[in-house]
């Protein structure tokens, strides 16, 4: 199983490939100018920020469970309590 440390050292293209081949898509939300796709990869969640106007992935980061964006996820699905 891949760790966050290992994944974070991947190139941008390899991160994308790994998420699409080994990750599990959980859901997508709209957040300001982005569509954010949430993936489960091993034991951690990853957010992929897609600028839909430019049709471009701009950022890939580990889910920050302290961010106010969490309410959008909790409104739509039940995430494990350990993320609360």
Main CATH class: Alpha Beta
- The chain-level structural class is alpha+beta
Strand order of the largest sheet: 1-2-3-4
Give the SSE order as H and E letters: HHEEEEH
DSSP E strands, number: 4
Mean pLDDT: 88
Counting DSSP H or I runs of 4 or more residues, the number of helices is 3
Shape: globular
Instruction: Give the helix level as a range of percent.
Output: 25-40%
Task: Explain what you see.
The protein has one domain: Viral Envelope Glycoprotein, domain 2 (2-Layer Sandwich), CATH 3.30.67. It has 84 residues and is of the alpha+beta class. The chain has 3 helices and 4 strands; from the N terminus they run H-H-E-E-E-E-H. The protein has helices at 4-8, 12-22, 70-76; strands spanning 24-31, 34-41, 44-51, 56-62. The longest helix has 11 residues, at 12-22. 27% of the residues lie in helices and 37% in strands. The mean pLDDT is 88. Strands 1-2-3-4 form a 4-stranded antiparallel β-sheet, covered by helices on one side. It is globular and about 30 Å long.
């Amino acid at each position: 199983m891949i760790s966050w440390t290992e994944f974070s050292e991947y190139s941008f293209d390899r991160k994308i490939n790994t998420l699409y081949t080994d990750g599990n898509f959980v859901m997508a939300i709209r957040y300001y100018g982005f569509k954010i796709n949430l993936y489960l990869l091993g034991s951690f969640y990853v957010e992929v920020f897609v600028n839909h106007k430019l049709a471009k992935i701009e950022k890939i980061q580990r889910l920050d469970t302290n961010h106010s964006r969490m309410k959008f996820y909790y409104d739509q699905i039940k995430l494990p309590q350990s993320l609360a």
